[in-house]
Amino acid sequence: MDRERREDGARAWIAGNLQRSVRASSDPDVRVYAGGQPQRMSPYEFARLVRKLKIFRWLERFEFGSFLDLASGFEHIPYLVTERYSVPAYYADMVHQFNLPIDGLFYGKLDHAVTLQLPVLPYRDDAFDVVLCSEVFEHLVRPIEAIAEMMRVARKYVVLTTLEGLAVNRWRRILSHWHVDVRVPHVERNFLVLDEFAALFGDGWQHESLLYSPNFPASLVEAVTDQAPAYDALDDTDALVAALCRAVSEGRHGPGSLGVVVVKPKAGALVRPPRIQVDAELARWLVAKAAFEEEWTQTALGIWAALERNPALRPKDPAPDRPVAPALLALLRCPDCGGPLDGAGTGARCGVCGQTFPGDWGVPILYSSRPADGALTDKALSRLCGDSRRRRRVVRRIARRLRRNERAPGPVRKLAWRLLPSPNAP
Ligand SMILES: [Zn+2]
To answer: How far is the CA of 207 from the centre of ligand 1 (A)?
Structure first.
């Protein structure tokens, strides 16, 4: 199927880029921090810190006992969550290499990671209090089904962030869709206006902009080289923390704002009022953790190099033949039929349909083997919209539009792309 080929293509593309990005972060000439202090802040690293700060400001307002980062990638947000709130936190990504517990055991991936494929989530209902999905929505081939699944496995809160996925108006949305080349792996393909997010998440949803350019050290629409001096000035932690607090202080949409943070508390889940007093402490902590992670990447690369030269030094535990932990299995269900999973060798086996799934290092690979039919199921619609006929109508329309956009471009459209600039270009 075309759709599956595209998902496989995206996975291979991301895995190929992993090596490159690890190398980049280990290059002393591009290091952001030195001795725990910022020395070479960049617009990219600053926006990354802003995104984390926005997410953690929301977590501060929740009451929760477990956490899942869906499509955690090379970030370690679950590690940060466990450090700060002392709750179990889980990793999940469609790229298996990201999930392996080989990048530092303290990050907590061991027995806490699953390789999966959106939109099917191989977890039981209400498996985690909080489900976070950050900067992935815009790339998903079946985003509505994926959000319905997040609502299923989250017991209390779903948090979604997307920088590119929010279109400022309908015209811009149409133009963005028209420019998507679905043949490009990992392309940004989903654009919704705010009203459509409202229809997807329904009553009680909360939202704010992800980035608000007027409160940034330099305007986000300027060329990166023109922004550089403002970021060079953030060369001590106090200055950086102050800039971060200013950047997150505004959450409005409209001119100068980019992206959206969506928070959906399920019925009965408490969201405490915001406390801006916590911002500075939270920002300082995130900066210290980012500096530590960069430092550790250097150390880890040194260790890996030494182990390559002398494999006898390699620790026995964890090892590739580690079975999936029983506590992790208890959270899972078969991605094909929803049945309970048992451990089988280094992978898992469904107790109902008998399907077996591979795995290594304690990380099961739970891709569904059922071909997706592409239709938005009534189950997903009911999960999202309940019995609201108006919302069902809007969500169905979004799903149809997104499906239509999965068609590969014809020669006329390809020619027109050369003539009209894309609004999707960064
Ligand atoms: Zn099954």
So the answer is: 36
pLDDT for residue 70 is more than 50: yes
Q: Is residue 16 one of the residues assigned to a domain?
A: yes
Domain that holds residue 224: 2-312+379-416
Q: What angle do CA 178, 184, 188 make, to 5 degrees?
A: 55
Convert the pLDDT of each residue in 147-197 to its tens digit: 999 999 999 999 999 998 888 888 877 777 777 777 777 777 788 899 999
Ligand 1: distance of its center to the CA of 323 in Å?
19
- The contacts of residue 182 (CB under 8 Å, 6+ apart) are 6, 189, 405, 406, 407, 408, 409
Residues 201, 298, single domain; the answer is: yes
Same domain, 212 and 253: yes
Predicted confidence (pLDDT) per residue in 242-267, tens digit: 999 999 999 999 999 999 999 999 99
Closest CA to 45 of 297, 287, 213, 288: 287
Distance from residue 57's CA to the centre of ligand 1 (Å): 38
The token pair that represents 49 in the structure block: 């810190």
Does position 15 have pLDDT exceeding 70, yes or no? no
User: How far does the centroid of ligand 1 lie from the alpha carbon of residue 369, in Å?
Assistant: 10
Residues 339 and 307 in one domain: no
